[in-house]
Amino acid sequence: MNFLQIKEVDMSAVADEIIRIGSKIPIWTFEGNLGAGKTTLIKILAKKLGIIDPISSPTFSYVNEYDHKIFHFDCYRLQSVEEALDFGLEEYLDSGKMCWVEWPQIIESIIPLPKLEIVIEHAQNFSRNISVKTIN
């Protein structure tokens, strides 16, 4: 597991490190409290990967697709795995495209491995602790 403590100004460097660590892993999960910075980090990652489409959290649609390359999920409102299966989440995850999943806890049982797990926590002095772990 890699553990990074960062200030806001370091988010770009953190994104570079996440991209390096996860370059061969198609599924990345993002965990953290509301307002922890999951979507902010995703915006930075997408920009670094050359995504041109506007990035926003798919809270109500559950999934956004960017530049036909990345699927971005927000599972915060899901009540069950069955609800995720009903909108075809499993097909997205098995598509071979990069999949970024915010609030993955409810669908943990259907997320294929390997995956990159990114956990963001608030720390003191407006910094964040970010842990990055590859799970096989």
Overview in brief:
This protein is α/β, with parallel strands linked by helices and 136 residues long. It has 4 helices and 7 strands; from the N terminus they run βαβαββααβββ.
Task: Explain what this protein looks like in three dimensions.
This protein is α/β, with parallel strands linked by helices. The protein contains 4 helices and 7 strands. The chain has helices at 11-21, 38-48, 81-86, 89-93; strands at 2-7, 27-31, 63-66, 70-74, 98-102, 115-122, 127-135. The protein has a 7-stranded mixed β-sheet, covered by helices on one side. Helix 1 packs across helix 2 (38-48). The two termini are 12 Å apart.
Write the element-wise H/E pattern from the N-terminal end onward.
EHEHEEHHEEE
Helix content: 10-25%
Total number of helical segments?
Answer: 4
The biggest beta sheet is recorded as: 7 strands, mixed
Q: Tell me the β content.
A: 25-35%
- Trace the largest sheet across and list its strands: 1-7-6-2-5-4-3
Average residue pLDDT: 88
| Low-pLDDT segments, ≥5 res | none
The helix/strand class is alpha/beta
Q: Roughly how many Å is the radius of gyration?
A: 14 Å
Number of strands: 7
Shape: globular
Distance between the termini: 12 Å
What attributes characterize this protein structure?
globular; single chain; 4 helices; 7-stranded mixed sheet; alpha/beta; 136 residues
Describe the secondary structure blueprint for this structure.
Layout: E1 2-7, H1 11-21, E2 27-31, H2 38-48, E3 63-66, E4 70-74, H3 81-86, H4 89-93, E5 98-102, E6 115-122, E7 127-135
Helix pairs in contact: 1-2
